[in-house]
Amino acid sequence: MSLRDEIGEQPEVVRSVLVANESAVTDVAAAIRERDAEFVLVAARGTSDHAAIYAQYVLGARNGLPVALAAPSLMSRFGTRPRLRRALVIGISQSGGSPDIVAVLREGRAQGALTLAITNDPMSELAAAAEWSLDLKAGTERSIAATKTYTAELLALAMLSAALADPAGSDDCRDLAELPARIEAALDGEEQIRRAAMARVGAGNFVVLGRGFEYATAREWALKLKEIAGVFAEGYSSADFQHGPSTLVGHGLPVLAIAPAGPLHDELIELLGSLQAERGADVVVVSDQPDSPSGAAVLPLPAGTPDWLGPLVAIVPAQLFSYHLALARGHDPETPRGLRKVTRTL
């Protein structure tokens, strides 16, 4: 099975995760309410770290929970013990095999914190270390670059947010159930995405912008460009980008942005228009709106996706763009140089 096959599997993976984890997510949400966790600490690496960024926004915006990203080496290398007793400690890992992520959950559990593993391997060390575990059930992901497991991680977090917000939330359930069709609609734009990637085959540097829920998408898109297309790419919050990094933009630099409808849309479109007009940036916009800067390449999204679920749909054009850029540059997307499927950091 190829990377492209796994990108295409994502609608079915979402359907599977929704069914398989409904009861488990309800039980975890009940445990969180019973323990009255005051904050969340998320441990993750690589692609899963971008799912952790999504957790910061979805659990913060919808559930009022402060969410911090763990520094695993504090426990695995420095031997320190941050106070975690009143926390919900979440470990996110496709393989469940990274020792430093496991160490965070073990420390949380030793202190009496509520611990949750989100992993595609229910027999992994991570799952064993946690009090609760959600099995992604994404199926075997053979490609080194994670695609369908990332989407499954996002979905597990979205389901948890929905269960915490309102256990009987019919609107959230409907919105979650509509995700497979929305992802299929995003896949339908592949030819337009392929052409946009082909047009930028000579570029060696990319900037990727997003904000709010889509900050996670910007970071993950940049990682996929590095991993499989072999280009230098950096993902930024569009707000942080204006505090210094924007000086890097010059004529012809591709600036990729995720700008769906929502409260942050207008300011991002204004920034992109300025970068294009004043700096000569080559703008590519992932959006469901018609107001992108004139001359920008637009990668279409289906309209109407709630902003809190947007990253599960917006990541699809990002994955396809990275895949087709890799092919156009003569890279084999199945075998990124120097990478392995499971990385066991300490």
> What separation lies between the terminal Cα atoms?
30 Å
Tell me the CATH superfamily of the largest domain.
Glucose-6-phosphate isomerase like protein, domain 1
Number of domains: 2
Give the count of helical stretches: 15
- Global Rg: 19 Å
Q: What is the overall pLDDT average? A: 94
Beta-strand percent range: 15-25%
Uncertain spans: none
Helix content: 40-55%
By secondary-structure content and strand pairing, the structural class works out as alpha/beta
- From the 3D structure, determine the CATH topology of the largest domain: Rossmann fold
Major beta sheet, specifics? Answer: 5 strands, parallel
Outline type: globular
Give the spatial strand order of the biggest sheet: 2-1-3-4-5
- Please state the second-level CATH architecture of the largest domain: 3-Layer(aba) Sandwich
- Could you give the count of β-strands? 10
Descriptive notes:
The chain has 346 residues and is α/β, with parallel strands linked by helices. The chain has two domains: 3-177, Rossmann fold, CATH 3.40.50; 182-328, Glucose-6-phosphate isomerase like protein, domain 1 (Rossmann fold, 3-Layer(aba) Sandwich). Helices cover 48% and strands 15% of the residues. The protein contains 15 helices and ten strands. It has helices at residues 3-8, 10-20, 22-35, 47-63, 73-76, 99-110, 125-129, 148-165, 170-177, 179-187, 190-198, 215-229, 238-241, 265-279, 310-328, and strands at 39-43, 67-69, 87-93, 114-119, 132-135, 205-210, 232-237, 254-258, 282-287, 297-300. The strands form two sheets. Strands 2-1-3-4-5 form a five-stranded parallel sheet, with helices on both faces. The chain has a five-stranded parallel sheet with strand order 7-6-8-9-10, with helices on both faces. β1 (39-43), α4 and β2 (67-69) form a beta-alpha-beta unit. The two termini are 30 Å apart. The model has no long low-confidence stretch (mean pLDDT 94).
